[in-house]
Amino acid sequence: MYRRPPGQQQRGFTLIELMLTIGVLGVIAAIAVPSFTTMIKNNRITATTNEVVGALQFARAEAVRRARVVQVNSVDNDSSKGLLLWMDGDSSGSYQAGEELRIMRIADSSMTIVAKVGAAAGAVDFAVAPNGMTNLADTLTVNICDDRSGDYGRTISLLASGVVRTETGVTCGESV
Fold this sequence. Notes:
Blueprint: H1 15-66, E1 70-74, E2 82-86, E3 100-105, E4 112-117, E5 120-121, E6 125-128, E7 140-145, E8 150-158, E9 164-172
Antiparallel strand pairs: 1-2, 1-6, 2-3, 4-5, 4-7, 7-8, 8-9
Domain General secretion pathway GspH: 49-162
Protein name: Type II secretion system protein H
Transmembrane segments: 12-33
């Protein structure tokens, strides 16, 4: 066995110390990674919720600012693809290319977005009047979930008055 001469200090790490440090780091990483994944998924739901709320508030603000009716529809009649905000410039009553004010697309395919007016689920289709009121007969609710089950979802409620509310901790899963 090698012995150090007296008065000479040890430099560096031994192989055992290095292996022990790597083992401790591995355990810490194994604990942290699932929490990090949950944080990323929660942030995606929050970001999608904020995009939808922003689009609904933008439609109301533009209707009031321009003193014209602004239409809000699902992209391709599917709420999970996003929202189309447009103003009927030629008074045809239907969307024409170039009439869009904003197209808000949902980029994350793991998001499930279900829109309902009252109890009837379907595509989003309503108008915002120049006074900020919608033509909705009942409250529009938009449930946003991802691929997890549990209380991770969010609900956006758009009242007939044009007021937008959000709720967190909505149960997601098969029944959404």
